[in-house]
Design a protein that fits this description.
This protein is about 45% helix and about 15% strand. By secondary structure, the chain is an alpha+beta fold. The strands form 2 sheets. Strands 1-2-3-6-5 form a 5-stranded antiparallel sheet. Strand 1 and strand 2 form a beta hairpin. The protein is globular, with a radius of gyration of 21 Å. About 35% of the residues are buried.
């Protein structure tokens, strides 16, 4: 026990020393991380609580600069959203030996929330699922891909607003299916073998043992594609309704890719309307996956999400995004009765159809 305690203290002091050179940042505690990135909770002079992700890049200087430019371009594109469901990197610091990515801290992530009490109710899951598809629709409209959507990268504020974080233009779009170490390095941060990576991203090696990366469509940003992000979102929606059980692990995803597995075993455990939506999102052929916008407007989305979610609830909470907490609480208190009355009227009209 003494040795373990000493090691923890040494790790904490070492990470604090590494971060001490960052301007305006004070180390608070470690948030863990995988082989690629180490995460720390820090206090920033201007932003407040921030997450700092540290990596030791092995790429050449030109590639590093390209990834930094991509992250800043993602930030710029997302800044145009009036009610964003994304939380991009806000600052990038390059020390020469390490690159530090800073973003605002959020209350929780979906992976942690699924294992915490009080457990999510059916209404909570419906609201989170709707916001996930709206987040995907926003990215599609901005021609921006995330590249690593999974439950741990879905952040939740204390009042339930969903934010996609940790955009990954620096991660490869294609992976070799015969090298699990590549998957572990880039996409298995938690070490649980949960896999939300679209099957088309696993590509057999060409001559010479190299997995060739494709060129991105003109104007598109990110290492992934919208169809790949839709697949990942479908996996997260399923995991949400399965109370934290993943739809795919690494081996079952590879079996699904080749057709050896017709459909994931847990798909039939989902409620009927959720199963219909997720089945469209995780289609093996990326050309068969609808966009998030099409899903929200299509029969699966209309069957799952009531009209009042888009007409009343989402606009109401979107108004609170840029309002100080005390003022937001006052608005909720003043308008709560009217909101319930409006929701009641919408519900009666839907039941009367």
């Amino acid at each position: 026990m003494g040795n373990a305690h000493s090691s923890a203290l040494a790790g904490r002091s070492g990470q604090a020393e590494i971060l001490s050179d960052l301007p305006s940042v004070v180390y608070k505690q470690s948030l863990g991380g995988g082989q690629l990135l180490k995460s720390s909770l820090c206090i920033h002079d201007e932003i407040g609580l921030v997450v700092v992700k540290q990596t030791y890049p092995k790429q050449n200087l030109g590639e590093i600069k390209k990834y930094e430019e991509d992250l800043l371009e993602i930030k710029s594109r997302l800044s145009s959203l009036a009610s964003p469901h994304s939380l991009p990197v806000t600052h990038i610091q390059d020390s020469g030996s390490s690159v530090f990515l800073l973003r605002q801290y959020a209350h929780s992530n979906l992976l942690a929330r699924l294992g915490a009490r009080p457990f999510l109710r059916a209404a909570d899951k419906l609201w989170i699922s709707y916001q996930l598809l709206v987040a995907g629709r926003q990215l599609e409209a901005l021609r921006t891909a995330h590249g690593d959507i999974k439950a741990s990268n879905v952040l939740l504020t204390s009042w339930g607003w969903v934010l996609l974080a940790d955009f990954a233009p620096y991660k490869p779009h294609h992976l070799p299916p015969d090298n699990p170490a590549s998957f572990s390095l880039f996409f298995d941060t938690a070490g649980k073998r949960t896999c939300c990576v679209a099957p088309e991203r696993f590509r057999d090696r060409a001559a010479g043992g190299v997995v060739k990366e494709p060129s991105a469509p003109a104007g598109a940003l990110g290492s992934s594609t919208p169809a790949s992000d839709v697949f990942s979102l479908g996996c997260v929606v399923a995991e949400l309704y399965l109370d934290g059980r993943p739809l795919f692990d690494y081996s079952s995803l590879l079996a699904y890719r080749t057709g050896a597995l017709e459909e994931p075993n847990l798909l039939r455990s989902l409620p009927a309307e959720v199963r219909a939506l997720v089945a469209r999102m995780i289609a093996r052929d990326p050309k068969q996956r609808p966009s998030c916008a099409a899903l929200l407007n299509g029969p699966e989305g209309r069957a799952m999400f009531p009209d009042w979610m888009a007409d009343v609830v989402h606009p109401f909470f979107a108004r609170l995004l840029r309002i100080p907490p005390d003022a937001a609480a006052g608005i909720v208190l003043d308008q709560w009765e009217g909101l319930l009355e409006e929701l009641g009227g919408k519900g009666r009209r839907e039941r009367g159809r």
